[in-house]
Amino acid sequence: MLEIANLHKTFVVGGVAPRGALAGVDLKVLPGEFVTIIGSNGAGKSTLLNAIAGVFPVDRGIILLDNEDITLQPEHKRAAYIGRVFQNPLQGTAASMTIEENLAMAMRRGQRRGLKRGLTARSRKQIKESLAVLGLGLEDRLQCPVGLLSGGQRQALALVMATLVRPRLLLLDEHTAALDPTTAEQIILLTQRIVSQEGLTTLMVTHSLDQALRLGDRTIMMHEGQIVLSVSGPERAQMGVEDLLEEFRKLRGVQVTDDSLLLTTSA
Ligand SMILES: Nc1ncnc2c1ncn2[C@@H]1O[C@H](COP(=O)(O)OP(=O)(O)O)[C@@H](O)[C@H]1O
Ligand SMILES: [Mg+2]
Protein backbone atom coordinates (compact mmCIF):
# COMPACT_ATOMS: atom_id res chain seq x y z
CA MET A 1 0.00 0.00 0.00
CA LEU A 2 1.14 3.51 -0.85
CA GLU A 3 0.44 6.17 1.75
CA ILE A 4 1.24 9.81 1.16
CA ALA A 5 0.62 12.44 3.81
CA ASN A 6 0.87 16.21 3.64
CA LEU A 7 3.32 16.22 0.73
CA HIS A 8 4.72 19.62 -0.19
CA LYS A 9 7.12 20.62 -2.93
CA THR A 10 8.06 24.10 -4.11
CA PHE A 11 10.31 24.89 -7.04
CA VAL A 12 12.22 28.14 -6.90
CA VAL A 13 13.22 29.27 -10.38
CA GLY A 14 15.25 32.41 -11.05
CA GLY A 15 14.22 34.26 -7.91
CA VAL A 16 10.58 34.35 -8.97
CA ALA A 17 8.12 33.91 -6.12
CA PRO A 18 7.90 30.16 -5.72
CA ARG A 19 4.62 28.44 -6.41
CA GLY A 20 3.78 25.22 -4.70
CA ALA A 21 3.87 22.39 -7.19
CA LEU A 22 2.59 20.13 -4.42
CA ALA A 23 0.63 21.88 -1.72
CA GLY A 24 -0.33 19.23 0.79
CA VAL A 25 -1.15 15.99 -0.99
CA ASP A 26 -2.75 13.18 0.98
CA LEU A 27 -3.29 9.91 -0.85
CA LYS A 28 -3.75 6.27 0.04
CA VAL A 29 -3.53 3.63 -2.67
CA LEU A 30 -4.53 0.10 -1.72
CA PRO A 31 -2.49 -2.92 -2.82
CA GLY A 32 -3.44 -3.74 -6.40
CA GLU A 33 -5.43 -0.54 -6.81
CA PHE A 34 -5.23 1.23 -10.18
CA VAL A 35 -5.64 5.01 -9.83
CA THR A 36 -5.94 7.36 -12.81
CA ILE A 37 -4.88 10.98 -12.36
CA ILE A 38 -6.20 13.97 -14.28
CA GLY A 39 -5.71 17.70 -13.96
CA SER A 40 -4.88 20.77 -16.02
CA ASN A 41 -1.35 21.49 -17.21
CA GLY A 42 0.85 22.44 -14.28
CA ALA A 43 -1.54 20.93 -11.71
CA GLY A 44 1.30 18.93 -10.15
CA LYS A 45 0.62 15.47 -11.60
CA SER A 46 4.16 14.79 -12.81
CA THR A 47 5.59 16.38 -9.69
CA LEU A 48 3.60 13.94 -7.57
CA LEU A 49 4.91 10.95 -9.54
CA ASN A 50 8.45 12.35 -9.46
CA ALA A 51 8.24 12.88 -5.71
CA ILE A 52 7.14 9.28 -5.24
CA ALA A 53 10.00 8.08 -7.47
CA GLY A 54 12.49 10.21 -5.51
CA VAL A 55 13.59 12.45 -8.39
CA PHE A 56 13.99 15.30 -5.90
CA PRO A 57 13.62 15.68 -2.14
CA VAL A 58 10.24 16.96 -0.97
CA ASP A 59 9.90 19.96 1.35
CA ARG A 60 7.53 18.34 3.76
CA GLY A 61 5.41 15.25 4.16
CA ILE A 62 5.87 11.53 4.19
CA ILE A 63 5.77 8.70 1.65
CA LEU A 64 5.20 5.15 2.89
CA LEU A 65 5.26 2.12 0.65
CA ASP A 66 4.11 -1.14 2.26
CA ASN A 67 4.66 0.52 5.64
CA GLU A 68 8.23 1.42 4.80
CA ASP A 69 9.15 5.09 5.01
CA ILE A 70 10.84 5.86 1.66
CA THR A 71 10.63 9.67 1.93
CA LEU A 72 14.39 10.10 2.17
CA GLN A 73 15.45 7.16 0.05
CA PRO A 74 17.50 8.06 -3.05
CA GLU A 75 15.95 7.63 -6.50
CA HIS A 76 18.20 4.75 -7.59
CA LYS A 77 17.12 2.66 -4.61
CA ARG A 78 13.45 3.28 -5.33
CA ALA A 79 14.04 2.45 -8.99
CA ALA A 80 14.71 -1.11 -7.88
CA TYR A 81 11.05 -1.59 -7.00
CA ILE A 82 9.16 1.25 -8.71
CA GLY A 83 8.43 0.79 -12.42
CA ARG A 84 8.03 3.92 -14.52
CA VAL A 85 6.92 4.72 -18.05
CA PHE A 86 7.09 8.28 -19.32
CA GLN A 87 5.40 10.26 -22.09
CA ASN A 88 8.50 10.31 -24.25
CA PRO A 89 9.21 6.89 -25.80
CA LEU A 90 12.91 7.84 -25.86
CA GLN A 91 13.05 8.10 -22.09
CA GLY A 92 12.21 4.57 -21.04
CA THR A 93 14.59 2.65 -23.25
CA ALA A 94 18.22 2.91 -24.36
CA ALA A 95 18.24 3.59 -28.12
CA SER A 96 21.74 2.35 -28.91
CA MET A 97 21.24 -0.94 -27.11
CA THR A 98 19.45 -3.93 -28.57
CA ILE A 99 16.03 -5.12 -27.41
CA GLU A 100 17.72 -7.99 -25.61
CA GLU A 101 20.23 -5.72 -23.87
CA ASN A 102 17.45 -3.39 -22.73
CA LEU A 103 15.45 -6.27 -21.32
CA ALA A 104 18.50 -7.83 -19.68
CA MET A 105 19.05 -4.49 -17.97
CA ALA A 106 15.44 -4.42 -16.81
CA MET A 107 15.74 -7.97 -15.56
CA ARG A 108 18.73 -7.10 -13.41
CA ARG A 109 16.87 -4.24 -11.77
CA GLY A 110 17.26 -4.34 -8.05
CA GLN A 111 20.07 -6.86 -8.20
CA ARG A 112 23.59 -6.00 -7.31
CA ARG A 113 25.65 -4.92 -10.26
CA GLY A 114 28.20 -7.32 -11.65
CA LEU A 115 26.31 -10.28 -10.29
CA LYS A 116 25.32 -11.48 -13.71
CA ARG A 117 26.37 -9.84 -16.94
CA GLY A 118 24.79 -11.94 -19.65
CA LEU A 119 21.44 -13.61 -20.03
CA THR A 120 20.86 -17.18 -19.03
CA ALA A 121 18.89 -19.40 -21.38
CA ARG A 122 16.05 -19.27 -18.91
CA SER A 123 15.95 -15.47 -18.81
CA ARG A 124 16.09 -15.32 -22.59
CA LYS A 125 13.09 -17.63 -22.74
CA GLN A 126 11.21 -15.44 -20.25
CA ILE A 127 12.08 -12.33 -22.24
CA LYS A 128 10.89 -13.91 -25.49
CA GLU A 129 7.63 -14.90 -23.86
CA SER A 130 7.08 -11.40 -22.48
CA LEU A 131 7.62 -9.96 -25.95
CA ALA A 132 5.55 -12.56 -27.78
CA VAL A 133 2.36 -11.58 -25.92
CA LEU A 134 2.71 -8.06 -27.32
CA GLY A 135 1.97 -9.43 -30.77
CA LEU A 136 4.49 -7.05 -32.33
CA GLY A 137 6.99 -9.65 -33.45
CA LEU A 138 9.69 -8.15 -31.25
CA GLU A 139 10.60 -11.58 -29.89
CA ASP A 140 12.21 -12.34 -33.26
CA ARG A 141 14.18 -9.10 -33.28
CA LEU A 142 16.14 -9.40 -30.05
CA GLN A 143 19.34 -8.11 -31.68
CA CYS A 144 17.64 -5.06 -33.18
CA PRO A 145 18.73 -1.70 -31.71
CA VAL A 146 15.81 -0.13 -29.90
CA GLY A 147 16.44 3.13 -31.78
CA LEU A 148 15.02 1.50 -34.91
CA LEU A 149 11.65 0.77 -33.31
CA SER A 150 8.56 2.95 -33.67
CA GLY A 151 7.31 5.06 -30.77
CA GLY A 152 4.55 2.58 -30.02
CA GLN A 153 6.91 -0.37 -30.09
CA ARG A 154 9.25 1.44 -27.73
CA GLN A 155 6.44 2.25 -25.31
CA ALA A 156 5.35 -1.39 -25.38
CA LEU A 157 8.94 -2.37 -24.64
CA ALA A 158 9.17 0.27 -21.90
CA LEU A 159 6.04 -1.20 -20.28
CA VAL A 160 7.48 -4.70 -20.41
CA MET A 161 10.76 -3.40 -18.97
CA ALA A 162 9.01 -1.56 -16.14
CA THR A 163 7.10 -4.69 -15.14
CA LEU A 164 9.48 -7.56 -16.04
CA VAL A 165 10.63 -7.68 -12.45
CA ARG A 166 7.36 -7.22 -10.60
CA PRO A 167 7.36 -3.63 -9.31
CA ARG A 168 5.82 -2.79 -5.95
CA LEU A 169 4.43 0.29 -7.66
CA LEU A 170 3.91 1.25 -11.31
CA LEU A 171 3.97 4.93 -12.30
CA LEU A 172 2.72 5.90 -15.76
CA ASP A 173 3.00 9.55 -16.75
CA GLU A 174 0.93 10.22 -19.88
CA HIS A 175 2.66 7.26 -21.46
CA THR A 176 0.38 7.26 -24.50
CA ALA A 177 0.20 11.03 -25.08
CA ALA A 178 2.93 11.08 -27.75
CA LEU A 179 1.41 8.25 -29.81
CA ASP A 180 -1.14 8.28 -32.60
CA PRO A 181 -4.66 7.31 -31.41
CA THR A 182 -4.55 3.72 -32.73
CA THR A 183 -1.14 2.99 -31.21
CA ALA A 184 -2.16 4.74 -27.99
CA GLU A 185 -5.17 2.45 -27.71
CA GLN A 186 -2.95 -0.61 -28.20
CA ILE A 187 -0.64 0.55 -25.42
CA ILE A 188 -3.65 1.20 -23.18
CA LEU A 189 -4.92 -2.35 -23.78
CA LEU A 190 -1.46 -3.68 -23.01
CA THR A 191 -1.33 -1.59 -19.85
CA GLN A 192 -4.69 -2.92 -18.71
CA ARG A 193 -3.61 -6.49 -19.39
CA ILE A 194 -0.30 -6.25 -17.55
CA VAL A 195 -1.72 -4.33 -14.59
CA SER A 196 -4.65 -6.69 -14.09
CA GLN A 197 -2.68 -9.89 -14.72
CA GLU A 198 -0.02 -8.91 -12.20
CA GLY A 199 -2.39 -7.07 -9.87
CA LEU A 200 -0.03 -4.10 -9.85
CA THR A 201 -0.57 -1.05 -7.68
CA THR A 202 -0.62 1.63 -10.35
CA LEU A 203 -0.81 5.40 -10.73
CA MET A 204 -1.49 6.59 -14.26
CA VAL A 205 -1.56 10.23 -15.33
CA THR A 206 -3.63 10.83 -18.43
CA HIS A 207 -4.91 13.76 -20.46
CA SER A 208 -7.84 11.71 -21.66
CA LEU A 209 -10.84 12.05 -19.36
CA ASP A 210 -12.47 9.13 -21.10
CA GLN A 211 -9.42 6.95 -20.42
CA ALA A 212 -9.32 8.16 -16.82
CA LEU A 213 -12.85 6.93 -16.19
CA ARG A 214 -12.62 3.78 -18.29
CA LEU A 215 -9.44 2.40 -16.75
CA GLY A 216 -8.63 1.41 -13.22
CA ASP A 217 -10.54 1.61 -9.97
CA ARG A 218 -10.39 5.25 -8.96
CA THR A 219 -9.90 8.64 -10.57
CA ILE A 220 -8.36 11.61 -8.82
CA MET A 221 -8.23 15.17 -10.08
CA MET A 222 -5.38 17.48 -9.16
CA HIS A 223 -5.47 21.27 -9.13
CA GLU A 224 -2.77 23.67 -7.94
CA GLY A 225 -0.84 20.94 -6.19
CA GLN A 226 -3.76 19.39 -4.37
CA ILE A 227 -6.17 16.53 -4.90
CA VAL A 228 -9.55 18.17 -5.40
CA LEU A 229 -11.62 15.15 -6.40
CA SER A 230 -11.46 11.42 -5.84
CA VAL A 231 -14.12 9.12 -7.24
CA SER A 232 -14.47 5.36 -7.25
CA GLY A 233 -17.06 2.61 -7.11
CA PRO A 234 -20.65 3.16 -8.29
CA GLU A 235 -20.26 6.94 -8.25
CA ARG A 236 -17.40 6.71 -10.73
CA ALA A 237 -19.11 4.04 -12.80
CA GLN A 238 -21.98 6.43 -13.42
CA MET A 239 -19.78 9.37 -14.33
CA GLY A 240 -19.16 10.51 -17.86
CA VAL A 241 -16.63 12.85 -19.41
CA GLU A 242 -19.19 15.68 -19.15
CA ASP A 243 -19.36 15.23 -15.39
CA LEU A 244 -15.59 15.51 -15.14
CA LEU A 245 -15.62 18.61 -17.31
CA GLU A 246 -18.23 20.08 -14.99
CA GLU A 247 -15.88 19.43 -12.06
CA PHE A 248 -13.10 21.20 -13.96
CA ARG A 249 -15.32 24.20 -14.66
CA LYS A 250 -15.86 24.63 -10.92
CA LEU A 251 -12.13 25.14 -10.37
CA ARG A 252 -10.77 28.63 -10.30
CA GLY A 253 -8.53 29.59 -13.19
CA VAL A 254 -9.21 26.53 -15.31
CA GLN A 255 -10.49 26.96 -18.83
CA VAL A 256 -11.83 24.01 -20.66
CA THR A 257 -10.40 24.55 -24.11
CA ASP A 258 -11.40 21.35 -25.77
CA ASP A 259 -14.18 18.79 -25.56
CA SER A 260 -12.16 16.58 -23.29
CA LEU A 261 -8.45 16.50 -23.77
CA LEU A 262 -6.54 19.71 -23.31
CA LEU A 263 -7.15 21.71 -20.22
CA THR A 264 -5.10 24.75 -19.41
CA THR A 265 -4.76 26.90 -16.36
CA SER A 266 -4.98 30.58 -17.18
CA ALA A 267 -2.05 32.52 -15.76
N1 LIG B 1 11.90 20.61 -12.18
C1 LIG B 1 11.11 21.70 -12.07
N2 LIG B 1 11.64 22.91 -11.88
C2 LIG B 1 10.86 24.01 -11.74
N3 LIG B 1 9.52 23.99 -11.79
C3 LIG B 1 8.93 22.80 -11.97
C4 LIG B 1 9.69 21.59 -12.13
N4 LIG B 1 8.82 20.56 -12.29
C5 LIG B 1 7.59 21.10 -12.25
N5 LIG B 1 7.64 22.44 -12.05
C6 LIG B 1 6.50 23.34 -11.91
O1 LIG B 1 5.60 22.76 -11.00
C7 LIG B 1 4.26 22.90 -11.42
C8 LIG B 1 3.62 21.55 -11.61
O2 LIG B 1 4.22 20.92 -12.76
P1 LIG B 1 3.90 19.45 -13.22
O3 LIG B 1 3.87 18.56 -12.03
O4 LIG B 1 4.86 19.11 -14.29
O5 LIG B 1 2.42 19.60 -13.79
P2 LIG B 1 1.54 18.57 -14.62
O6 LIG B 1 2.29 17.31 -14.77
O7 LIG B 1 0.28 18.42 -13.82
O8 LIG B 1 1.26 19.25 -15.93
C9 LIG B 1 4.32 23.74 -12.70
O9 LIG B 1 4.12 25.08 -12.34
C10 LIG B 1 5.72 23.49 -13.21
O10 LIG B 1 6.18 24.57 -13.95
MG1 LIG C 1 2.98 16.28 -16.42
3D structure, described in words:
This protein is α/β, with parallel strands linked by helices. The chain has a domain at 2-81 and 167-265: Rossmann fold, CATH 3.40.50. The chain contains 9 helices and 12 strands. The protein has helices at 45-53, 75-78, 99-107, 121-132, 151-164, 181-198, 209-214, 233-237, 241-250, and strands at residues 2-11, 19-29, 34-39, 60-65, 68-69, 82-85, 169-173, 202-205, 218-223, 226-232, 254-256, 263-265. The strands form 3 sheets. A 6-stranded mixed β-sheet has the order 6-7-8-3-9-10, with helices on both faces. A 4-stranded antiparallel β-sheet has the order 2-1-4-5, covered by helices on one side. A two-stranded antiparallel ribbon has the order 11-12. A hairpin with a 2-residue loop joins strand 9 (218-223) and strand 10 (226-232). Helix 3 packs parallel to helix 5 (151-164) and helix 5 runs parallel beside helix 6 (181-198). Mean pLDDT is 89; it is low at 259-267. Adenosine-5'-diphosphate binds at residues 11, 13, 19, 21, 39, 41-47. Magnesium ion (MG) is lined by residues 45-46.
SS field, number of helical segments: 9
Number of strands: 12
Q: Beta-sheet strand percentage?
A: 25-35%
Oligomeric state, counting identical vs distinct chains:
single chain
Largest sheet: 6 strands, mixed
Shape: globular
CATH superfamily of the domain at 2-81 and 167-265: P-loop containing nucleotide triphosphate hydrolases
Indicate the low-confidence ranges by residue numbers: 259-267
Distance from first to last alpha carbon: 36 Å
Radius of gyration: 19 Å
- What's the CATH topology name of the domain at 2-81 and 167-265? Rossmann fold
Would you identify the CATH architecture of the domain at 2-81 and 167-265? 3-Layer(aba) Sandwich
Write down the CATH class of the domain at 2-81 and 167-265. Answer: Alpha Beta
Q: In sequence order, what are the helices and strands, one letter per element?
A: EEEHEEHEHHHEHEHEEHHEE
Cross-sheet strand order for the largest sheet: 6-7-8-3-9-10
**Helicity, in percent?**
25-40%
Based on helices, strands and strand pairing, what is the structural class? alpha/beta
Bound molecules: adenosine-5'-diphosphate, magnesium ion
User: Can you give the mean pLDDT?
Assistant: 89
